[in-house]
Amino acid sequence: MSIPPEALQKLLSEIEQKAAFSQQQIGIVKSQMAAKNRESRMLQLTTVELDGLPKDANIYEGVGKMFVACPPSEVKVRIAKESEDLKKDVENLEKKLNYLETTYKNSKEHLEAIFKNGGR
C-alpha cells in the first residue's frame, strides 16, 4: 500500500523539521555544556588559590561595583555549593544532549527508510 503524495510530503516535512530542530538544539546544548565546564574549571582554580593562602589572609568578594570582606570558610562553602550546582546542570545537559542526539538519529533513519521504500 502506497502513501498518497500529499501525506508523504507532509510527513517528510515534519521529519525534516524535527531533525533540523534537534540539530540546532544539539549545538546550543554543547555550547552550554562548554560554558558550564569553563565555570567549573574556574571554581576549581579559585579553590586551589584559596587553599594556598594563609589562614589569616583577607579575602574580598565582588558585589556589584564594590568588594566586601568575607571569611575564607564562607567563600569555600559558596564555591562548593556552586560546584555541586554546576555538576547537576552538566548532568541535566548531558541527558538532554543524549535525547536530542537520539531524536536526530531516529529522524534521519526515518527519512532514509522513506526514501529507500519510495513512500510505500
TrEMBL record:
Pfam families: Prefoldin_2 (PF01920). Keywords: Chaperone, Coiled coil. It comes from the Eukaryota. Residues 76-110 form a coiled coil. InterPro entries: PFD_beta-like, Prefoldin. PANTHER family: PREFOLDIN SUBUNIT 1, PREFOLDIN SUBUNIT 1-RELATED. Belongs to the prefoldin subunit beta family. This is Prefoldin subunit 1. It comes from Neodothiora populina.
